[in-house]
Design brief:
By secondary structure, the chain is of the alpha+beta class. About 20% of the residues lie in helices and about 30% in strands.
């Protein structure tokens, strides 16, 4: 059995339909397959005057109850905070290959739900 192929401006109709279906499927699929820029559980440290200290405070990256990415501190800050949003901290670093390096805050925020990108903390 042969499939009739109709040429239309250099591309056959079957190919156009296949491309249309593939594009529609890609656009309709959720982005859950995308790898997060920094995996949950990564050692992080934050510095922000609002935490009641000028020192780095360490913790781990984890999604909060509202799905926003937070650094859950190893111990409460001087101001009583137990977690800080990645979007809200002034400085954020991650432990990678045996050293502290700047965390890709922009990429972490871009991967979060829109309502998580404004910052804040658990106050």
């Amino acid at each position: 059995m042969t499939v009739p192929i109709v040429r239309k401006e250099g591309m056959n109709v079957l190919s156009c339909k296949l491309i249309s279906v593939l594009l529609a499927a890609l656009l309709a699929a959720p982005l859950s397959w995308a790898t997060p820029p920094v995996p949950e559980g990564t050692r992080m440290r934050v510095m922000d005057a609002g935490l009641g200290t000028r020192d780095w405070l360490e913790g781990r990256l984890k999604a909060g109850a509202d799905s926003c990415m937070m650094v859950f501190l190893d111990r409460p800050s001087a101001s009583g905070h137990t977690a800080v949003s990645v979007a809200g901290a002034r400085q954020v670093q991650m432990f990678q290959s045996g050293q502290w390096v700047p965390a890709p805050v922009g990429a972490i925020n871009a991967a979060q739900p829109r309502e998580c990108r404004g910052g804040g903390d658990n106050g």
